[in-house]
Amino acid sequence: MADFVVGGAQMGPIQRADTREDVVARMIALLERAAVAGVEMLVFPELALTTFFPRWYAEDRAEFDKYFEREMPNAVTQPLFDRARELEIAITFGYAELTPEGRHFNTSILTDRAGRIVGKYRKVHLPGHVEHDPERSFQHLEKRYFEPGDLGFPVWRNAGVVMGMAICNDRRWPEVYRCMGLQGVELVTLGYNTPSVNSQKGEEGLERRLFHSDLSMQAGAYQNATYVVGVAKAGVEDGHHLMAGSIIVDPNGVIIARAKTEGDELISAACDFAACRFGKETMFDFARHRRPEHYGRITSQSGVVLEV
Amino acid sequence: MADFVVGGAQMGPIQRADTREDVVARMIALLERAAVAGVEMLVFPELALTTFFPRWYAEDRAEFDKYFEREMPNAVTQPLFDRARELEIAITFGYAELTPEGRHFNTSILTDRAGRIVGKYRKVHLPGHVEHDPERSFQHLEKRYFEPGDLGFPVWRNAGVVMGMAICNDRRWPEVYRCMGLQGVELVTLGYNTPSVNSQKGEEGLERRLFHSDLSMQAGAYQNATYVVGVAKAGVEDGHHLMAGSIIVDPNGVIIARAKTEGDELISAACDFAACRFGKETMFDFARHRRPEHYGRITSQSGVVLEV
User: Distance between CA atoms of A221 and B108, rounded to whole angstroms?
Assistant: First the structure.
């Protein structure tokens, strides 16, 4: 069973005016710091290459295709892959994906320690809305610019560990961790861009938002006996504040590393993946304890059915 | 939308030597205190009428039928129902149920404010084991003395609120809250008898056990925008320490009441059930955001399937 140092590369804001080259240079700087810290697996945020553009409304969606990547790696990101390979650090990061067929996804990829892409995930739980919503204090148009992911919740064995990916709002959904838990996941990696204020409830500010973020990841970790690494893009981005709070959670649901800043910052923790075994073999020995015959609603209905 | 005070009637230990009459007298005393506090719905623990007998091994299971109730209400519990009706307090409590067909369940019932039983739940997630396990520091033989519940996770509208029940170990399983959440639940009630030390991991003591208990209930509350009330039978029972930590959690996952002792203790909180709406209509608007087409494993497999 593997035992290595996992890192989270929290990133400060990426302004609209920043170039992807600027951003990749920052990511490589974080990778260098990670190498010094002995990190073997490094997690970058969601949409790590650009500003969080779904906060703006574009009448013509195609106007925002400039924020999407048509291939990965591409000319701009190749230096990141090269440096990761040289440093023998597996990485995962998020980006907006535009497929050859013209489909748009909020995507993350996973590489092995040789810099090869071994996994791809497309965000399933897109928050927000499709049309401009004047009721909100700001827009959150992920449902406008992306389609929901079509790849499910796969896992991969990478560096000896069973890994899966999620993205941002996915972390609030227990189904996500469970689908991976049912495949024996030992490390769930996820990145996020989360406004520090609820656009529909102004009084729900930073403290409460951090609490909800922690709570969801800690419960997902504990209830599936897996490590979870959640990494933010944070700080004031194009005038909008994104929460930080990047954390590494152990299979007991305990936070073992936490970012202190809202900028580019490395967090890391030595993970003993054998520690996943205890939970998986006792309290959460799914084969002995789960009762799918009573869980039917979880897959047979998406919304609430009020019968009483 | 209803708005009333919910109470948790934490109970101290029930020794083997205690009679059910002794116990019902304590429950009625808690009910009286609840009435003074303005409680309209009161939650008692799991197996509220007896000691937690699954900690002992009986070669002949029938030897423990003495801990089971053959009807509910019965002569011993009728005064509890009567007093609840007079005080107009809806109640829920757990007991060991022996059916006319000879089946054994770990059960809880729910009454309306007129003292009528309106709902029954049978514990689905039985922890522990069937045969004597010499590796454990003490036994946890729920799988020996009970069969898994056969009623699923129903909800009822009671006192104007959509309520559902769970029991003890059920609280660690996100499927439980979700099945009720998909029926619009606004109040999940549950009782527990939880040893304060993990029988298979001695160093996992009280603090960690309380953390796991809180974490599971808080996540279940937040992710389904529901109140959750978890109520312990606590203290040193027949030489075994049970954790306390009874809590009431709001739909934000925030703990709004917590027991301070390990004895008979009333906790209560004014619950504004309209507060469930915000989560149910935004972040956790299931119809808009859930994607059951990707959740298939949750119902198609019970145990882990390792494919990588």
Answer: 29
* pLDDT at residue A1, rounded to an integer: 55
Q: Which 3 state secondary structure label does DSSP give B161?
A: strand
Residue numbers of A between 163 and 222 with CB closer than 8 Å to B: 169, 172-175, 178-179, 181-184, 198, 200-201, 208, 211-212, 215-216, 218-219, 222
Residue B195 identity (one-letter amino acid): P
A249 neighbors A293 (Cβ within 8 angstroms): no
The proportion of chain A whose per-residue pLDDT surpasses 70, expressed as a percent, equals 100
Task: Fill in the amino acid letter for A113.
Answer: R
Residue B235 three-state SS: strand
In terms of DSSP bridges, do strands B247-249 and B227-232 run parallel, antiparallel, or are they unpaired? antiparallel
Write out pLDDT tens, residues A77-120: 999 999 999 999 999 999 999 999 999 999 999 999 999 999 99
Band of the pLDDT at B59, cuts 50, 70, 90? Answer: very high
Please list the active-site residues of A. 46, 123, 168
Q: Which residues in B63-91 are b (16+ Cβ under 10 Å) and which e?
A: ebeebbbeebbeeebeebbebbbebebbb
The set of residues, in sequence order, having a beta carbon less than 8 Å from that of B135 and lying 6+ positions away, is B200
Secondary structure of residue B91 in the 3-state scheme: strand
Candidate from A127, A153, A291 with C-beta closest to B124: A291
Helix (H) or strand (E) holding B237: strand B235-237
Which residue, A174, A83, A279, is CA-closest to B180?
A174
pTM over 0.90: yes
* Strand pairing class (A265-272; B3-10): unpaired
Cβ neighbours of A278 in B, within 8 Å: 200-201
> Strand pairing of A247-249 and B255-258?
unpaired
Q: Which domains does chain B have, with CATH numbers?
A: 4-300 (3.60.110.10)
